[in-house]
Amino acid sequence: MPELEPVYLISGSDRPKIRMAVERLRNRFEDGGVEVLTAGEHSADDAIAACNALGLFGGEGRLVIVESVEDWKAAEAKTVAEYLKSPAPETVLALVASEMKKDSALAKTCAKHGTVLMYDAPKKRELPAWVAKQFEQLGATADRDACRLLVELVGEDPERLRSEIEKLATWSGGEQVTEADVRLLTSLSAETTVFALTDAWGKRDTASALAAVESLLERSGTRELPRLVAMLASHVARVRACLSFSEEGLTARDAASRLKLHPFAAEKAFAHAGNFAADELTHATVRLAELDLALKGGSRLSGELELERALVEVTEPAL
After folding, report:
1. How far apart are CA 157 and CA 100, in angstroms?
2. Which residue pairs, CB below 8 angstroms and at least 24 apart, start in 130-139?
3. By C-alpha distance, which of 186, 197, 199 is closest to 219?
4. Residue 277 maps to which CATH number?
5. Picking from 12-21, 64-73, 100-109, 288-297, which range would have the lowest pLDDT averaged per residue?
6. Residue 192: count of CB within 10 angstroms of its CB
7. Quick one: which of 67, 220, 267, 274 is 20 to 30 A from 237 by CA?
8. Is the confidence at residue 295, as pLDDT, over 50?
């Protein structure tokens, strides 16, 4: 095992990687030799006091973890720097942050006396590959379509993705995780509520569309309304395009290529296109634009009521 540094700064937006790095450190120490503090409740002086308390505990070595050190003030970095001039023997100070600039005083101090580990979450286009690597770390595999669909359903939050990956990897029992497995087992999130809404609209199921909206509002509040309307309008635009492609004799696979969509999304849009006439889709586009204006101050009615009225209008079958 490599010799440990007196201090580690572990930071970034890739929370699963941060959690794994902290766990690797914890595994080097006995449970009684690990203390966890939170920067919002403990100062750097408290952390240093914990590091110097080795003589009060048995076992070999001591690990002091301080979470959320981005909450510390600049003066805290000076306290840490002073301690690191003569750190306690067989003691590791692990500072964990959700974000920390490399040129900050604390980061420079940790780099000088120990190790700085920065783990940033991958960009959206890189997420399917990241998902595949997470499966590999757990001793499992997933095909490309499964990884892409998982990102599409769960969203870009690494923590949520990791949770679903762990569940799928356990369930797979060594078999490759497929797109069908993801559809069957992935938990609902705020994003899947949006997909439930677009699917209900495409099936002209007004009751289900309103239920999806209610679920989203219970989870996230009215602040999600503009994003929700934008995603629904985007889906309507895809359906309009697929209706045009269908009239030209093209297939869902052709639409996926032309619109740069996942095949699953293209198949959905093609299926929904069969439930609407061209003029209905044009009307839906205009009505959603009016709704967007209403949500941005163009109406005295509540945003929730405006959305419900518009959904009923664009979803119910024409008389």
Report:
1. 19
2. 130/158, 130/161, 131/161, 131/165, 134/16, 134/161, 134/162, 134/165, 135/165, 135/168, 135/169, 135/177, 138/165, 138/166, 138/169, 139/169, 139/174
3. 197
4. 1.20.272.10
5. 12-21
6. 19
7. 220
8. yes
Domain end among 76, 91, 118:
118
**Mean pLDDT score, 83-96:** 95
Report yes or no: 262 and 150 within 8 Å, Cβ to Cβ. Answer: no
37 bridge partner residues = 66
Phi, psi of 10 (to 5 degrees): -115, 115
Does 1 have pLDDT greater than 70? no
Render pLDDT for 241-282 as a digit per residue (tens, 0 to 9): 999 999 999 988 888 888 877 676 788 889 999 999 999 999
What confidence tens digit (pLDDT) does each residue in 7-37 have? 999 998 888 889 889 999 999 998 888 999 9
Amino acid at position 242, single letter? C
Q: Quick one: 48 and 128 in the same domain? A: no
Token pair for 274: 């069969």
> Could you give the 3-state DSSP secondary structure of residue 115?
strand
Number of structural domains the chain divides into = 3
With b for 16 or more beta-carbon neighbours within 10 A and e for fewer, the 297-314 pattern comes to eeeeeebeebbbebbeeb
d(CA 150, CA 181): 10
Query: Sheet harboring 34-38: ordered strands across?
Result: 34-38, 62-67, 91-97, 7-11, 115-118
Q: What mean pLDDT is predicted for residues 128-137?
A: 92
The residue segments making up the domain with residue 236 are 190-315
